[in-house]
Amino acid sequence: MTSFWRLLFLPGLVSFVGPLTGLGQIDPVKRELAQVGYNAAFQGHSPFSGYAFFYWNQPAFLNTNLALRLAIAPTYVDSELGIRGVITPHTDVGIGVAGGGYADNYVEVRRGTFLPSESFTGYGGEAALSIYHLFNPGAQIPLNGVVRGIGRFSTYERDESTAPTFQVPADRNTVSVRTGLRWGGREPTLFPSLAMELSIWYEGQFRSRTDTYGFGDRKVESQSHLFWAQALLAYQLPELKHSFYLSLTAGTSIDADRFSAYRLGALLPLVSEFPLSLPGYYYQEISAKEFVLLGANYMVPLDRKQRWNFNVTGTTAAVDYLDGLEQPGNWHSGVGAGILFKSPSWKVMVGYAYGVDALRSRGPGAHSIGVLVQLDWEQAKEALLNPQSPGLLRGLQQFIGLFGT
Question: Rounded to an integer, what distance in angstroms lies between the CA atom of residue 376 and that of residue 346?
């Protein structure tokens, strides 16, 4: 395996408890979004922290009651075909298929140190069947329920840096069941100006085999059970045009192992459906059996057109560590600031983050820089192909104008 493909692959696409596309309902909006996120640490040897994928959602695919959703990364594809009104007029079914390279990679981070000798590569594929039900048709804020069954096959191999005496886990099949209730929701976009959500979830993971691996000191549990809830609110003040985003996420587990634990770290807002961000930290640096995570974001426009914006963010978490990955203290906090540029089709933010309690060789405290990019290709195509005035030249001028001219 080469490091080139590991850098290109979206490592967070299937991280935490589900893929980015594992939403609580069929996405009703047509979207063509290119998303890129990357964090670079200043201290230590860090695992790769980033994602790159194209999100395509077509609500009326071939037929009015079909919807197709794709998330495409260089070595991985996650897809779902939604069928509306299958069981009742307000009950939909989703059929999902996903797979590709490096989807089940595992990186070991212990007490703030990335350990390539105890990390390894994983490949996987899965099929899923989901049922989505809308409980309150016609209500301003929808209440959706979801039940999903997933069958997944995972296989593992050594990296070039894995220690010769380190035994990778055996190949296995995993059957997962997830169910949840979501009131409201947020779009899969960077920095939404309006969103709210209250949701509660359960996921059970049942594995075909349990074994020990590593140096004989690690175990794959035969089953793990996860319970978590999330509350969030995003809003733009109508007079000031300031925007804020608040989120509170909490989770607990039964028989969690390294493959099912909650993993917190880095500032990558679209790395999964439920990103557990800690600015300034390595990606997935903290492994927890239980956690409470509070995050806040505030954005102030710097010009009249609100193209340039100043953004500040902060998160703090209380964690109960996974056995074997404990650290001194149970609190972790991170802060950050950045400049965000927005146009009808582009969002680009460059920022700095500081992990207040991140352990490094010289003690607590870690610095990182990051970039987040979103291209709304649907908006860009509209400007190019359907300009306000006829002519290709006018279309090109309007398309270039989306970059901020």
Answer: 6
